[in-house]
UniProtKB/TrEMBL annotation:
Sites bearing 4-aspartylphosphate, chain numbering: D63
Organism: Herminiimonas fonticola
The organism's taxonomic lineage, starting at the top: Bacteria, Pseudomonadati, Pseudomonadota, Betaproteobacteria, Burkholderiales
Membrane-spanning ranges: none
Pfam families tied to this protein: Response_reg, TPR_19
Signal sequence annotation: none
Protein name: Tetratricopeptide repeat protein
InterPro entries associated with the record: CheY-like_superfamily, Sig_transdc_resp-reg_receiver, ST_Response_Regulator, TPR-like_helical_dom_sf, TPR_rpt
Gene3D superfamilies: 3.40.50.2300, Tetratricopeptide repeat domain (1.25.40.10)
Record carries keyword RNA-binding: no
The entry's keywords: Phosphoprotein
């Protein structure tokens, strides 16, 4: 029976992950003595993932050394990056090495606590009780965040800081993140500075200041801060990730790749290898991309953490390095593993068409291409559409490939990564001379819509301007330039004619979509500020 002190622990459900049966049973016994009776046990990462997919756990106690392929940190990275854990789930990492805290502190996804063997029930109880106290204190804030009420969450942060100051660092972390997500860069910067005035060793606050600079377009200033963090701790994963983002924004793809390579050296997980492979492919380093995707596939082969994209990317690199037979072999093996993945057959057929063309088997290449085209359906502004266009070029359907590519670019003409990939496709297929006609003209066509809408707006023809942008969004729903213009136009309309709640909902929808398409963009942040300022202005006038 649970003690009075730990009575709330009896309501918790726990999972113990350890490859040694004796250790699992020992921890289960310790938890049982605390009153935690619902305890499941997993011997492997795959077993743990199966349990987590089928139940919500309050406490997960995981050994760091699980097996040769996956350790506890890599499993935590997989669970958190795929959002498989409840926001309130407590993840404890257990290790025989007292130095693990330095490893955990460098990770992007950190456990709620690390515990050195041998474990005792008292130490486990102390950790759980403290985390439950923190959850209870921060609940008014986290409830607001769950409802996407960022402004409300910031207000609750101020209340909790006053009523329960011992959690001030946690409160400031939540408040600064909410302010940055809201697009209020200056407010976020002040909160990060306040946190550093309390403790100058808070790496998350230093990187937060760098993100403020990044969002404001001050990329050099952001880079200086990140590099200063890495000077003191060259193992910090989050700093390398941010450094890669900054480098990519500056058009320095090789620097981005270098940063991701260093992050892989710290935590050589499948996810990190995947990021390296993608970056290497973008800069045209096919040898490194081949190595990275091979590692990603081998890291996860036969595991629930395996992803079809790794095998598909590996096959594509084999095609590009003129190894079509190897590409087809990879696709054949992967087809058995991902037969239930609805998106796999389309990309498989796209790559197979290129591989068959590389072998000179044009009949099979055209059959695979037609299958891919039928399965793909509508052409969208994404890499898959451009890869399908690449397959069209490979089977000799140049006009069709050109139309696909043009449509994809027009759908998101301001997406620099997409445009760069389109140029790469034309170069790889021997159509470099077509870059100006296809890519540049498509970019101009997309920009023309925004220009025409802007002119109508300036002439006071708001309805006509709105109509033009709405038509464009129906045709190209992911076009960032059109989304930004539509948000701006709706806000200008309200600033002159008054509040329209349906327009506010539209603008919020546009900005939410842009957050996904353009993470950490200063243009989007400015639009959020414009929204707030417009609503304040309209309210005052009313």
């Amino acid at each position: 029976m649970a003690t009075i002190l730990n009575s709330r622990l009896a309501k918790l459900r726990a999972l113990v992950v350890d490859d040694l049966q004796t250790m699992r049973q020992n921890i289960r016994t310790q938890l049982g003595q605390l009153g935690i009776e619902q305890v499941d046990q997993a011997a492997t990462p795959d077993d743990a993932i199966k349990f987590i997919r089928n139940a919500n756990y309050d406490v997960i106690v995981c050994d760091y050394n699980l097996n040769k392929e996956t350790n506890g940190q890599q499993m935590l990275e997989f669970l958190r990056s795929n959002k498989m854990l409840s926001p309130t789930a407590m993840f404890f990492m257990v290790t025989a090495e007292s130095s693990y805290d330095s490893v955990a502190s460098t990770a992007e996804f950190q456990p709620d606590a690390y515990m050195v063997k041998p474990l005792t029930g008292g130490r486990i109880a102390d950790r759980i009780e403290r985390l439950l106290d923190r959850q209870h204190a921060l609940k008014p804030i986290t409830d607001r965040l769950d409802r996407k009420d960022l402004a409300g969450a910031i207000a609750e942060c101020d209340k909790v800081a006053q009523s329960d100051p011992k959690w001030i660092v946690d409160v400031l972390k939540l408040k600064s993140s909410a302010a940055l997500d809201l697009g209020d860069i200056e407010a976020a910067r002040k909160v990060y500075a306040e946190a550093l005035s309390l403790r100058n060793d808070l790496v998350w606050a230093k990187l937060g200041l760098a993100r403020c600079h990044q969002a404001a377009g001050k990329l050099d200033e952001a880079k200086v801060i990140v590099e200063s963090v890495l000077e003191k701790n060259n193992q910090f994963i989050g700093a390398y990730d941010l450094l890669a983002q900054i480098a990519e924004s500056q058009g320095k793809d090789q620097e981005a790749l270098d940063a991701l390579n260093k992050s892989y050296e710290v935590i050589p997980s499948a996810r990190r290898s995947r990021l390296v492979g993608d970056a290497a492919y973008r800069v045209g380093d096919l040898e490194q991309a081949l190595t990275a995707f091979t590692k990603a596939v081998s890291h996860t082969r036969g595991s629930l953490t395996a992803q079809a994209s790794d095998a598909l990317s590996l096959a594509q690199v084999h095609v590009d390095t003129r190894e079509p037979t190897l590409a087809l072999t990879v696709l054949s093996v992967a087809a058995k593993d991902y037969q239930d993945d609805p998106s796999f057959p389309t990309r498989q057929a796209i790559i197979a068409a290129q591989a068959f063309a590389g072998l000179g088997d044009m009949e099979s290449a055209k059959a695979a291409y037609e299958s891919a085209k039928e399965a793909a359906g509508e052409i969208r502004a994404d890499a898959d559409s451009l890869t399908l266009a690449k397959a069209a070029f490979c089977v000799g359907l140049n006009e069709e490939g050109a139309r696909m590519m043009s449509k994809a670019i027009k759908a998101d003409h301001e997406n620099e990564r997409l445009v760069a990939f389109a140029r790469r496709v034309l170069k790889d297929t021997g159509n470099e001379a077509m870059i100006e006609k296809i890519v540049e003209e498509s970019i101009s066509a997309g920009a023309l819509i925004v220009d025409e809408a802007t002119k109508l707006m300036r002439n006071g023809q708001f309805d006509e301007s709105l109509e033009k942008l709405e038509e464009a969004l129906v045709a190209t729903p992911d076009n960032t330039g059109v989304l930004l213009a539509a948000a701006q136009l709706h806000l200008l309309w309200m600033s002159q004619k008054g509040l329209d709640r349906s327009y506010v909902e539209r603008v919020n929808g546009y900005l939410a979509q842009l957050d996904g398409l353009m993470p950490n963009s200063e243009r989007v942040a400015k639009m959020y500020r414009f929204l707030r300022e417009t609503l304040v202005k309209v309210a005052r006038e009313a």
